[in-house]
Amino acid sequence: MATQPILIVDDEEHTRTALGTALEMLGHPGAVACATLAEARRELEGGGFALVLLDLHLTDGSGEALLATIAAAHPEVPVIVVSGTNEVSTAVRCMRASAVDYLVKPVDPAALEAAVRRALTRSELETENRQLARLARREGLAHPEAFAGIITVDAGMDRLMRYAEIVAPGSQAVLVTGETGTGKELMARALHRLSGRRGQFVAVNVAGLDDAMLADTLFGHRRGAFTGAAGDRPGLVQQADEGTLFLDEIGDLAEASQVKLLRLLQESEYYQLGADRPRRSRARIVCATHRDLEGWMREGRLRRDLYYRIHAHHLHLPPLRERRDDIPALVHHFVAAAARDLGLPVPPVGAAVVRAAGANPWPGNVRELAAVAQDAVGRGRGQSLDPALFGPAATSEAPALAFPPLLPTLDEVREQLMAEALRRTDGDVVEASRLLGMSRWGLSKHLKQSQSNRLPVVGAS
């Protein structure tokens, strides 16, 4: 969580060593240790500490004096008192003097971990609040290049991106919500670029993954964990170490999977399948969904504790119908992109095209507009664009499905949809799963089931 070092101030060498080792095991290496008040003051003058662990009884004075100095000169640095004095009056005095926690020696590792996590989380949120206050007085983005994939002139989107700049460097989970096609993954990638994290951006659509498949996908497995596990396999959490793990469609998680994810968020730990010891994770979690998670929580379909964990920061992307001013720029952008993709000249975008697009409610949002532009450029062969293709009649009034006299079952309809998606994508399972709005693993699972139990074709005699 902390990118800056932690300062340990204690006159006992074995305590300094033990605390430094414990912090390293908790994922905070590189602690700086001091034995006296004088050394600690010199280190603090240089600044750059995330946290101070402070003993009260030092060879050259009282730690309470240093606590007062830190509160006055470095109020942004939280202090945890670690003392051999187990007196309520001393603890109360230190807490009133701005200490964020009070631990008694010998320190229990679990208590130390909890105290450090609380202190760093509180410090991080206070820093973000100060930055948000400055943001209210500032205009424009500090890093517009991070949002290169998001085409907008909308004032609401600008405020949203400025907020993203503030929360991106932190370690708390971020929830990105919005209708399908609003650009949730683009925002997640922007958060990763802004975070400065050294690790990868790793994305996974959790919709359609059952508990066992999700656990193996995210956490990996050890050799022999199950039949066919011939070797160790790292999961996506490990791949995203020191980076960003993007969990799309988080609202579709099963109850058992919610419990596993909650542990990862709360403890920054997870178990590989077949392992008896937990692994630590330094990945930042970004979740996305088009669902109403608050409503699902009230209905008992989403754990309340998980909801609040993933809701530390919330970015809601508005639908395109609420960003009308963005439509002309998006039409020009996607027409040019489609022409490049198809190897065709960029056709002119006339006023009729822009008017037609402006009248469209775009239920599929930005993704739908991109698909229409691709189709229009292909149909016009790069020479002209048909305004009717961008209008509401072309995209919103889809023809009704035609059914035979004997209605098919849901399983039959599902198989036909999968077959059509595979036909349109020339058998590409990844692309077909995107068309169907499901995960690649979920589609593969359904295909295997249908192969073992062939269903009749809809309407076949």
List the helices and strands and how they pair.
Blueprint lengths: L5 E4 L3 H13 L6 E3 L2 H10 L4 E4 L2 E2 L2 E2 H11 L5 E5 L4 H9 L4 E4 L4 H28 L18 H13 L6 E4 L6 H12 L5 E5 L5 H9 E2 L11 E2 L1 H4 L4 E5 L6 H13 L1 E2 L8 E2 L3 E6 L3 H6 L5 H7 L2 E4 L10 H16 L8 H9 L5 H16 L11 H5 L13 H15 L4 H8 L3 H13 L9
Parallel strand pairs: 1-2, 1-3, 3-6, 6-7, 8-15, 8-16, 9-12, 12-15
Antiparallel strand pairs: 4-5, 10-11, 13-14
Helix pairs in contact: 5-6, 6-7, 10-12, 13-15, 17-18, 18-19
Amino-to-carboxy terminus distance: 63 Å
Biggest pleated-sheet summary? 5 strands, parallel
Mean pLDDT across the residues is 87
User: Low-confidence parts, pLDDT < 50 over ≥5 residues?
Assistant: 455-461
Strand content: 5-15%
* CATH topology label of the largest domain: Rossmann fold
Structural class: alpha/beta
Q: What spatial order of strands do you see in the largest sheet?
A: 2-1-3-6-7
What does this structure look like?
With 461 residues, the protein is α/β, with parallel strands linked by helices. The chain has 4 domains: 6-131, Rossmann fold, CATH 3.40.50.2300; 147-318, 3-Layer(aba) Sandwich (Rossmann fold), CATH 3.40.50.300; 321-396, Helicase, Ruva Protein, domain 3 (Orthogonal Bundle), CATH 1.10.8; 410-452, Arc Repressor Mutant, subunit A. The protein contains 19 helices and 16 strands. The chain has helices spanning 13-25, 37-46, 63-73, 88-96, 109-136, 155-167, 184-195, 211-219, 236-239, 255-267, 293-298, 304-310, 327-342, 351-359, 365-380, 392-396, 410-424, 429-436, 440-452, and strands at residues 6-9, 32-34, 51-54, 57-58, 61-62, 79-83, 101-104, 174-177, 201-205, 220-221, 233-234, 244-248, 269-270, 279-280, 284-289, 313-316. The protein has a 5-stranded parallel β-sheet with strand order 2-1-3-6-7, with helices on both faces. The radius of gyration is 28 Å and the shape is globular. The N and C termini lie far apart (63 Å).
